[in-house]
Amino acid sequence: MASTASATAVLARRSFCSASPCARLAVSLGSAQRSSSCAASNCRRSFVSWSWPRVAVASRSVPRGNFIFLSENVASVRGIHGAQAGRRGAAVMASSSSSSASPVGTIVSEPSTPVDNSSAGDSVEPLTWRASIDFKGIRENKEAIAANIINRKSTGDVELVVELYEQSVRLSMEVDKLRAERNAVASAMKGKLEQAKRQELITQGKELKERLAGLEVSLAQLSDKLQREGQRIPNMTHPSVPIGSEDVATVRKQVGEKPVFTFPVKTHVDLGQDLDLLDFESAAEVSGNKFYYLKNEAVLLEMALINWTLSELIKRGFTPLTTPDLVRSSVVEKCGFQPRGQNTQVYSVEDTDLCLAGTAEIPVGGMYMDSMLTEASLPLRIVAFSHCFRTEAGAAGAATRG
């Protein structure tokens, strides 16, 4: 369990993004990239603030967002969604009436190597939705997109996307040609024909039907593969975002001074156990590693902080929400997360299309998907409090139990 301050530092490293090739992300919250890995600090409570110049809907691009915390830079891609399973947190969102339409950016950290959420050995899950991706635009801007993938340490393959797109275009043209020939044969058979000619057209029609059926299957498979690879292309980073490590990060705001102690500093684990506020051992027996019980004054402190935060934001015009714990897999995927597969950070409910929500942004984003928000309806200000169910991928925070 990390302190709120350390979690804030992770959330502050945030990139602004310009228009995404993936236009139908509903509202992409928490993770604009499609192939991020989670290694965020195991902060148990997280109040996250966003700014939305425009909400992504239907065939619109995803909006730009920014955290109101400390800094912004692009070092590498990490997801907001890596931390303790079953924790609770709050997502605070605000919209702006700005006319710019840019996608939500990505929270960034510094992994040593890029991480892919879909390994070659994973079973292929059926597509739950299709994004309106501008593949022609990707082809025309592949150099810039390739550079953006490197800067964000993502795993998208723009060359593969372009190759699949060109194959798809050629195969679509061939399918259209066969359909036209089949229709011409069908039209010809409506007329008065000699038996030999009619039999010839029947044979020709059967051959065209068989060839067309095979090509249509190939086209559908190719289209699915193109869609999967296209969803792995990350949103473009805004030109104002520094590229590199924390040394080139832009500090947006600094609150308070770092305290200097004249005595040996205890960890939150030591303090919590000394004051009988935490119980890791019982939680490990009940739920497994990295879970805990809060006890005594820690429970009251948690509730007080939640209520204080909600109260302060309500004063500023935010609408409070509690959100469903279960969401459809398609909604999770539209928000940029990988709901299935070996390396997913999402708990899925077996034999259903439901997942446990890893962050409140997902069900909040789902409230506005497939809808049009007029400029007159902005700004939208929402604060949502929820449980956050996330798998324990990676060893981040293992040494300090969060």
TrEMBL record:
Residues 109-121 have a biased composition (Polar residues). One of its GO terms (biological process) is seryl-tRNA aminoacylation. Keywords: Coiled coil. GO terms for molecular function: ATP binding; serine-tRNA ligase activity. Pfam families: Seryl_tRNA_N. PROSITE patterns: AA_TRNA_LIGASE_II. Residues 313-402 form the Aminoacyl-transfer RNA synthetases class-II family profile domain. It comes from the Eukaryota. Residues 205-232 form a coiled coil. The keyword Coiled coil applies. Residues 94-123 are annotated as: Disordered. Gene3D superfamilies: Bira Bifunctional Protein, Domain 2 (3.30.930.10), Serine-tRNA synthetase, tRNA binding domain (1.10.287.40). This is Aminoacyl-transfer RNA synthetases class-II family profile domain-containing protein.
